[in-house]
Q: What sequence folds into this?
């Protein structure tokens, strides 16, 4: 299944769940129930009312979850991350999303690279990724802005070392290599888009609308 087809399948599933939730809310109106108690010769009847305390809220647009963003980045393979250079100008380079751990998206770099110094000075990044489909106009692409936080997390380093053959080789399978640095993204805000959905142009039913996310 292609990325675009998987995206559409998830949207159909979301729509189905929405309809079922609406139907359930409509049929679960407050109901009366009579409970009868016997105490000696006297009989008491108590009327109880069932009240729905969590009404259904319908969203006009689907909202992506963190694991879905991670899954999409994983399928794409390479992403492009932009930082603010030490000279104040934008810099961009290919990066690879590594792992989702502890509710966070993790990446890695080398402490000798300019990217490391740039993120220490200004942690805000933009990331974009896409994989052109044969039917180009159906191609999905993702974009997000976030703040990068470095952390000496050995568990994450070991996970990345196990996953990435490149990292494994470069750092000689040593998760505690002094140049090996990992960071996660925080204050993430972005969207999954479609090349065929362009603002200002006429909309077509077969083009998916952007799905936004914020973590």
A:
């Amino acid at each position: 299944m292609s990325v675009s087809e998987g995206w559409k399948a998830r949207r159909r599933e979301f729509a189905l769940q929405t309809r079922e939730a609406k139907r359930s809310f409509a049929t679960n109106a407050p109901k009366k129930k009579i409970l009868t108690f016997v105490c000696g010769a006297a009989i008491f009847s108590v009327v109880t009312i069932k009240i729905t305390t969590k009404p259904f809220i319908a969203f006009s647009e689907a909202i992506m979850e963190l694991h879905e963003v991670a899954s999409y980045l994983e399928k794409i393979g390479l992403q492009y991350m932009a930082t603010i250079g030490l000279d104040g100008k934008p810099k961009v380079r290919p990066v690879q999303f590594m792992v989702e751990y502890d509710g966070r998206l993790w990446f890695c770099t080398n402490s000798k690279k300019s990217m490391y110094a740039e993120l220490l000075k200004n942690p805000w990044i933009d990331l974009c990724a896409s994989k052109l489909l044969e039917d180009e106009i159906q191609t999905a692409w993702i974009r997000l802005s976030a703040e990068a936080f470095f952390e000496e997390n050995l568990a994450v380093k070991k996970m990345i070392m196990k996953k990435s053959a490149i990292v494994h080789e470069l750092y000689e399978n040593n998760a505690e290599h002094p140049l090996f640095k990992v960071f996660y993204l925080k204050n993430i805000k972005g969207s999954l888009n479609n090349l065929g959905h362009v603002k200002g142009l006429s909309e077509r039913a077969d083009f998916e609308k952007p799905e936004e996310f914020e973590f």
